[in-house]
Design goal:
The complex is a heterodimer of chains A (about 325) and B (about 325). Chain A has about 325 residues and is of the alpha/beta class. Chain A has helices spanning about 5-30, 45-50, 65-70, 75-85, 115-130, 150-160, 190-195, 210-225, 255-260, 265-275, 280-300, and strands at about 60, 105-110, 135-140, 165-170, 200-205, 230-235. In chain A, helix 5 (about 115-130) packs parallel to helix 6 (about 150-160). Classes of the chains: A alpha/beta (about 325), B alpha/beta (about 325). Bound molecules: thiamine diphosphate (TPP).
């Protein structure tokens, strides 16, 4: 990454962190209902990977997908509007926090059934291969997903069909409240399974945006050459609990402290300073991100709720919901 | 070739082949569908004609098959996925219940999923409880899926064309007990629009609403009853979603009596939906109670004699019709 690219990546991570803080605050003030799964702490995975992908590559994420949607080009305003059930929301308020999707930017959805989207990503990669388009598909998922059948079916299919797909595990050490090591037969829940599918795997520092970028770029290159899928286990940590209801009391204090000191924003800032980028330049990007998110909050708050008739649109491709002729 | 028998199983392969010739984005995937030509021989000739680039053999991975079909459908292809026996849909039910039918809705219309999941459905061949179920009612419980279940070879071809061309996801139930049956080969570019029921036999005394395997069954019952002076109209629904209730209600205007014949279990069967619409919108058309002849609420037993005990038979249908005409 050039200093400018790294600066952009840093700014993108700050924008995501700020948007997630807004989501948290809006939830606390009763303006976001349901639940949110914040990805604060995971930003480097989404931003590093997005920087390494082409604009027309495909991305599939989980219910913890705010960072992927934003990194892929969804705006803070449309994301916050979606969370606040506004008609200007990314999915016209029919998706919500767990389903952020921006198909026009290759962000093909956030899926709330653990592991379900891994076969879909394999399918999108299969489609790219059939069309000879040179596109790559990426599935981001949690460590918990590695124990579900769809993970194994997707890896095997991707390997035997040599598909241009990247499986990127955000290993944050916990599924909901249970440490992943307590329920998994191998120490590295994703990477240790790769050998069973004859697939190359890498374990990386998922909090270093440069490392993520380099790894994903290499794997994507491999995939585009026709050399098949790669499994990447990015080690990271979530700053908050699993979802809004969870204060994350189950995590040892020293573990939390250790990871908080390895915040992806700090890691990137240190890299920028080492490259000679001035603190003022960095602060300027911080300010811009803050202003963008403040404006997004205001705009989303002022947007109208969806018309009730919207409940009956878009079941079918003709735009409607008629089940009888 | 007019004298060569055109079977229901030929019609499946022919229907797919016609669409694959027409549209290069149509691709097939499933277990043993390639060189082996399908365990039910419903993909005969496809691998030979279209090759491994368009007809893909998969591992035994029902989630991967339907999940990959979904991903491909979202990105410009029109996949036709085979799930060998419809019972196995349970292994990938997440995709049919949670993923495929909701993607368009919950993204506010951003994503379209034009795929077909084909599967061999129903009893009658003595495969036992885990390979014999009629499960079209499973799909009926999920808003967002179109459901096709043809009863004859010409409809297989015509409905396959409509299903593959549909921009919506379609579950296509091929009935195992009908595979060997034959009928006329439909003309080129034969398309049967989804959601158009057919009047398989005209009659004036009783309307029988049937689907797939229960259509020939009901026609046989109608034939028998004609000898007793009872005139039976048989409606072949062809699709459950979209559901053509107009044709049913119009028929009841003439007959005023309704029997619904479905192979899936009575509990939660599609007949319940047909009957509830008639009760809601056509109550005045009726001169008698409605009868449902349906599968019993038990797993399907193995022995022929036991199976006949629990799924609809010609005798059960004639009996229901006689009782209604005598009411
Ligand atoms: C099939 C399925 N089972 C259970 C759940 C409930 N659930 C939601 S998130 C979650 C934990 C997933 O953990 P992980 O895959 O590590 O992802 P993370 O939340 O850490 O990003 C569980 C069990 C679900 N959504 N889907």
């Amino acid at each position: 990454m050039t200093p400018d690219e790294l600066l952009d990546a840093y700014a993108e991570m700050v924008l995501i962190r700020r948007t997630e803080k807004a989501a948290h605050d809006l939830f606390m003030s009763g303006l976001v209902k349901g639940t949110t799964h914040l990805a604060a702490g995971h930003e480097a995975v989404a931003v590093g990977a997005s920087a390494a992908l082409h604009p027309d590559d495909y991305v599939f994420a989980t219910y913890r997908g705010h960072h992927h949607a934003l990194a892929r080009g969804a705006t803070p305003e449309e994301c916050l509007a979606e969370l606040m059930s506004r008609s200007t929301g990314l999915c016209q308020a029919k998706g919500g926090s767990m389903h952020l999707t921006k198909a026009s930017k290759g962000m093909l959805g956030s899926y709330a059934i653990v592991g379900a989207h891994l076969p879909m990503a394999a399918g999108a990669a299969w489609s790219a291969k059939l069309r000879g388009s040179g596109q790559v598909a990426v599935a981001f998922f949690g460590d918990g997903a590695t124990n579900i059948g769809a993970f194994h079916e997707a890896l095997n299919l991707a390997a035997v069909w040599s598909l241009p797909v990247l499986f990127v595990c955000e290993n944050n050490l916990y599924m909901e409240y249970t440490p992943i090591e307590a329920v998994t037969a191998v120490p590295n829940p994703a990477a240790d399974r790769a050998a069973g599918y004859n697939m190359p795997a890498e374990i990386i520092d998922g909090n270093d945006v440069v490392v993520v970028w380099e790894t994903v770029a290499r794997a994507a290159e491999r995939a585009r050459k026709g050399d098949g899928p790669t499994l990447i286990e990015a080690q990271t940590y979530r700053h908050f609990g699993h979802s809004r209801a969870d204060p994350a009391k189950y995590r040892p204090a020293d573990e939390v402290e250790r990871w908080m000191k390895h915040d992806p924003l700090d890691v990137a800032r240190a890299r920028l300073e080492a490259l000679g980028v001035s603190p003022d330049t960095i602060a300027e990007r911080d300010r811009r991100a803050a202003a963008t998110v403040d404006a997004a909050i205001a705009a989303a708050k002022n947007a109208p709720e969806p018309e009730p008739a919207m409940a009956f649109t878009d079941v079918w491709a003709d735009g409607g919901a008629a089940w009888r002729t | 070739m007019a004298d060569v028998k055109f079977t229901y199983r030929d019609a499946v392969a022919e229907g797919i082949a016609r669409e694959m010739r027409r549209d290069p984005s149509v691709v097939c995937l499933g277990e043993d569908i390639g060189a082996a030509e399908g365990v039910f021989k419903t993909t005969v000739g496809l691998f030979k004609e279209f090759g491994p680039g368009r007809v893909w053999d998969t591992p035994i991975s029902e989630q991967a098959i339907v999940g990959a079909a979904m991903g491909a459908a979202m990105t410009g292809m029109r996949p036709v996925a085979e799930i060998m026996f419809s019972d196995f849909l349970a292994c990938c039910w997440d995709y049919l219940a949670n993923e495929i039918p909701k993607a368009r809705y919950m993204t506010g219309g951003q994503v379209t999923v034009p795929l077909v999941v084909r599967t061999a459905n129903g009893g009658g061949l003595g495969f036992g409880a885990q390979h014999s179920q009629a499960v079209e009612n499973w799909a009926l419980a999920v808003p967002g899926l179109k459901i096709v279940a043809p009863s004859n070879p010409a409809d297989v071809v015509g409905l396959m064309a409509a299903a593959i061309r549909s921009d919506d996801p379609v579950v296509f139930f091929e009935h195992k007990a009908l595979l060997a049956g034959s009928g006329p080969r439909p003309p080129d570019d034969h398309v049967v629009e989804l959601g158009q029921a057919a009047v398989a036999r005209e009659g004036t005394d009783v309307t029988v609403v049937a689907l797939a395997s229960t259509v020939p069954l009901s026609l046989k019952a109608a034939e028998q009853l004609a000898g007793e002076g009872i005139s039976v109209e048989v409606i072949d629904l062809r699709c459950l979603i979209p559901l053509d209730m107009r044709t049913v209600l119009r028929s009841l205007e003439r007959t005023s009596r309704l029997v619904v014949v479905e192979e899936n279990p009575y509990q939660g069967g599609w007949g319940g939906t047909v009957v509830s619409v008639v009760a809601d919108e056509g109550f005045e058309l009726l001169d008698a109670p409605i009868k449902r002849v349906a599968g019993a609420n038990v797993p399907l037993p193995f022995a022929d004699s036991l199976e006949a005990e629990v799924i609809p038979t010609v005798d059960k249908v004639t009996e229901a019709i006689r009782r209604l005409t005598a009411y």
